[in-house]
Design goal:
Order of helices and strands of chain A: HHHHHHHHHHHHH
CATH topology of the largest domain in chain A: MetI-like fold
Order of helices and strands of chain B: HHHHHHHHHHHHHH
Number of strands of chain A: 0
Subcellular location (chain B): Cell membrane
Shape of chain A: flat
Keywords (chain B): Cell membrane, Membrane, Transmembrane, Transmembrane helix, Transport
Number of strands of chain B: 0
Family (chain B): Belongs to the binding-protein-dependent transport system permease family.
Distance between the termini of chain A: 31 Å
Radius of gyration of chain B: 26 Å
Number of domains of chain B: 2
Largest interface: A-B, 101 and 105 residues
InterPro entries (chain B): ABC_transporter_permease, MetI-like, MetI-like_sf
Largest sheet of chain A: none
Shape of chain B: globular
CATH class of the largest domain in chain A: Mainly Alpha
Structural class of chain A: mainly alpha
Number of domains of chain A: 2
CATH architecture of the largest domain in chain A: Orthogonal Bundle
CATH topology of the largest domain in chain B: MetI-like fold
Radius of gyration of chain A: 24 Å
Pfam families (chain B): BPD_transp_1 (PF00528)
Oligomer: heterodimer
Largest sheet of chain B: none
Number of helices of chain B: 14
CATH architecture of the largest domain in chain B: Orthogonal Bundle
CATH superfamily of the largest domain in chain B: MetI-like
Strand content of chain B: under 5%
Chain lengths: 292, 310
C-alpha cells in the first residue's frame, strides 16, 4: 500500500480530494437533521417561515426549550415533557440495573458452570432477542393486569427486564467464554463457592462488558416506544410517548420550535452517552452480530 | 478449550460428592438460571403460544376463547389494509436493506483509505443510531414537511417548481420511511463493514497487489468476497429492524396519508389496541413472527454449519 500512496501524481491528488469531498458530503447528510433540529429549537416562532430551514436564528431564544420542558401540551394535558423525562429515568435506571445484574449471573453460570443442557438453555433464551414484540403485547397486557401492574412504572420496569435479559445474558455469556477457565477450576478446587468465585474472579474483570450492557440497555429502554405506548397511562408515560403526543397534539397553532426542542430533550441522554462512550456503544451493537 | 473443559468436569463432580455444601454448590448455577429460564419459557414461548391461541378465536375488545379456526387469517388475507401494509414492508424493507448495505459498504471502504480524522467522521456517521426512532421521525417529518421543509427551502432558492412532497403523497409516503430509516441505520452498517475490513489479513491484499491488480479490482474480487459474513449479519439485523419498524411510522407518517404507509407492526397495534380486533391483531402478529423466523432460521442454520466446519 505504502508505495502506491507515496507516488503522489496529480491524478492521485485529485482522487484524494474527491475522496475527502465524498466523505464530508456524507458527514453533512448525517449532521444536517441534527443541526436543523437544534437551530429550529432556538428560533422564535416568527422566524420560522418557508425557506428559512437552514438560516441561523436572528434572535436566539431558549423560550421553546422552557416551553417544551414545562408547559407544552401532550394530548389533554399541558405540563410539558419534563414530567415524562423523569418517568423515563424512573423506569430506565432500575430496569437497566436489574437486567444487567441478572445477565451477568446468567452469563457466569452458563460459561463457568456448564451442565448438561446449558447450551440448549442459552439457545432457548437467545431466541428472546429476535421475536417481534408484537407477538407478546396482548398476553403481556393481560398478565400485567393480573399482577395489578397495568399502566404502572413498575409494570414497565418488569417488561423491560423480562425482554432485556436475553440481550444482557448474551453479552455476558460471550464475554465470560473468553475468560480462562483454569482460574475458576483452581478456585473450585480450593473450595470457593459459586458466588465467591463470581465476586472475586469474574466481577473484577467485567468492567468493559458491564459498560457495554448498561449502555445497550439504557439506549434500548430510553428509546423504547412500543412498550411505553402499550403499557402506560398518561401519568406513567415515558418521554418518547410524550414527545409523540406533543408533536401530534392538534390544539392551537403548530409550534415547530417547541417540537424540535422537545425532540432535543428526548434525544439528549442517549446522545450524551454515545458521545462519552461511543466505543462501548458500538461494541454492544455489534455483539449480537459478531458472536464471540 | 475442550481440554480444559474435560479437565474441569471431574473436579467439579468430586467436589460435589465431598459434602452437602458441595451438593448445594452443584445446584446453585441451575438455581440462578432457573428464574430466567422460567421467564423465557413463560413470557416468550408461552406468550407466543397464547397469541397464537388468540389468533384462532373471535376476540374483539377483550380476549374471548371462542374458537373460529383460521377464520382470522382468512379475514387478514381478504383485508386490503393488510396487503398494503405487507407490500409496504417488502418495498420499505427491500430498499432499506439494499441502500444501507450499499451506503455502508462505500463509506467503510472510503474510510479505510487512511483518512485523517477518521474517528470524528465515524462518530458522525454513527450517532443517529443512538437516537430514538421517534426523534428521527419527528425531525424528518419537519424536514420533509412541504410547507416549511426542504421543498420550501429549495423553492426559496429560485426553483419555483421544485416538488418534494412525498410525505403527503399516498404513493410516495413509504419512501420517506426509507429515507429516515437509512439515515438512522446506515452508519451502523458502515461500522460493521469497517470492522470487517480491518479484520482482513493484509497479506492477501499484498499478494493481490504484487500480482499487479488495480485497487478497484482488488476490492471487487478479493476484499468484498471476504466480507460475505458481515453482509449476512447486516442483512439479518436490518431486516429485523424493518419488520419491527413501528415507532418510525408512528412518528413520521402516522401510517398515512390514510393507511398508505402502514406497516404490519402498525397494523397489528391499530387492530389489537385501538380498533378492538384482538383476534385479527393476533393473527397479524403471528404472521410477523413467521416473517422473522423465515429470516432467522436460514441464518442460524448457516451459522451452525459454518461453526461445525470451521
Amino acid at each position: 500500500m505504502d508505495n502506491v500512496i507515496r507516488r503522489r501524481t496529480l491524478g492521485a491528488r485529485l482522487g484524494r480530494a474527491t475522496l475527502y469531498a465524498v466523505l464530508l458530503l456524507a458527514a453533512l447528510f448525517y449532521l444536517l437533521p441534527l443541526a436543523v433540529m437544534l437551530v429550529t429549537s432556538v428560533k422564535p416562532l416568527a422566524e420560522i417561515t418557508p425557506g428559512t430551514l437552514l438560516s441561523l436564528p436572528r434572535e436566539p431564544t431558549l423560550v421553546p426549550w422552557a416551553k417544551a420542558w414545562g408547559e407544552a401540551c401532550t394530548g389533554m394535558r399541558c405540563e410539558g415533557i419534563g414530567v415524562y423525562f423523569f418517568n423515563s429515568i424512573a423506569i430506565v435506571v432500575p430496569a437497566v440495573l436489574i437486567s444487567t445484574a441478572i445477565g451477568a449471573l446468567n452469563g457466569y453460570a452458563l460459561t463457568k458452570w456448564r451442565f448438561k443442557g446449558s447450551e440448549l438453555l442459552f439457545a432457548l433464551m437467545l431466541f428472546g432477542c429476535f421475536i417481534p414484540f408484537q407477538v407478546v403485547l396482548l398476553p403481556m397486557a393481560q398478565t400485567l393486569g393480573w399482577l395489578g401492574l397495568s399502566s404502572s412504572r413498575a409494570g414497565l420496569i418488569l417488561v423491560h427486564v423480562i425482554f432485556g435479559i436475553a440481550f444482557t445474558t448474551l453479552f455476558f455469556r460471550n464475554f465470560y467464554v473468553a475468560v480462562p477457565t483454569e482460574l475458576v477450576s483452581a478456585a473450585k478446587l480450593d473450595g470457593a463457592g459459586f458466588f465467591r468465585i463470581f465476586w472475586r474472579i469474574l466481577l473484577p474483570v467485567s468492567a468493559p462488558i458491564i459498560v457495554v450492557s448498561v449502555i445497550w440497555q439504557f439506549t434500548q429502554i430510553w428509546n423504547d416506544f412500543l412498550f411505553g405506548v402499550a403499557f402506560s397511562a398518561h401519568n406513567t408515560q415515558p418521554v418518547t410517548v410524550a414527545l409523540n403526543n406533543l408533536v401530534n397534539t392538534s390544539t392551537g397553532a403548530r409550534e415547530y420550535n417547541v417540537d424540535m426542542a422537545a425532540a432535543m430533550i428526548a434525544a439528549l441522554p442517549t446522545l450524551i452517552v454515545y458521545v462519552l462512550a461511543g466505543k462501548y456503544f458500538v461494541r454492544g451493537l455489534t455483539a449480537g452480530s459478531v458472536k464471540g | 478449550m475442550s481440554l480444559t473443559r474435560s479437565a474441569a468436569r471431574p473436579t467439579a463432580g468430586s467436589a460435589a460428592r465431598r459434602s452437602h455444601s458441595g451438593l448445594l454448590q452443584a445446584w446453585l448455577p441451575k438455581l440462578v438460571l432457573a428464574p430466567s429460564a422460567a421467564i423465557s419459557l413463560f413470557f416468550v414461548y408461552g406468550f407466543m403460544l397464547w397469541t397464537f391461541i388468540l389468533s384462532l378465536t373471535n376476540s374483539r375488545m377483550l380476549p374471548s376463547y371462542e374458537f373460529v379456526g383460521f377464520a382470522q387469517y382468512a379475514r387478514l388475507m381478504a383485508n386490503d389494509r393488510w396487503w398494503v401494509a405487507s407490500t409496504n414492508l417488502v418495498v420499505f424493507g427491500g430498499l432499506f436493506v439494499a441502500i444501507c448495505l450499499a451506503l455502508g459498504l462505500v463509506l467503510a471502504i472510503l474510510l479505510d483509505q487512511r483518512i485523517r480524522q477518521e474517528g470524528a467522521l465515524r462518530t458522525i456517521y454513527l450517532y443517529p443510531m443512538a437516537l430514538s426512532f421517534i426523534v428521527t421521525g419527528v425531525v424528518w417529518k419537519w424536514l420533509l414537511n412541504p410547507g416549511l421543509g426542504i421543498q420550501a427551502m429549495v423553492r426559496s432558492w429560485g426553483f419555483e417548481n421544485f416538488r418534494f412532497d412525498w410525505l403527503v403523497d399516498p404513493d410516495m409516503a413509504v419512501y420517506t420511511l426509507v429515507i429516515a430509516a437509512v439515515w438512522q441505520a446506515s452508519g451502523f452498517v458502515m461500522a460493521l463493514f469497517l470492522a470487517g475490513l480491518r479484520g482482513i489479513d493484509d497479506s492477501i491484499l499484498k499478494a493481490a497487489q504484487l500480482d499487479g491488480a488495480s485497487l478497484p479490482r482488488i476490492y471487487w474480487r478479493v476484499v468484498i468476497p471476504c466480507l460475505r459474513p458481515v453482509v449476512f449479519s447486516a442483512v439479518m439485523i436490518l431486516s429485523h429492524i424493518a419488520i419491527k419498524s413501528f415507532d418510525l411510522v408512528v412518528a413520521l407518517t402516522g401510517g398515512g396519508p390514510g393507511y398508505a404507509s402502514d406497516l404490519p407492526a402498525t397494523f397489528m397495534y391499530a387492530h389489537a389496541f385501538t380498533r378492538a380486533q384482538i383476534g385479527l391483531g393476533s393473527a397479524s402478529a403471528m404472521l410477523m413472527l413467521g416473517g422473522v423466523l423465515a429470516i432467522l432460521i436460514p441464518y442460524l442454520y448457516s451459522e451452525l454449519r459454518s461453526r461445525r466446519h470451521g
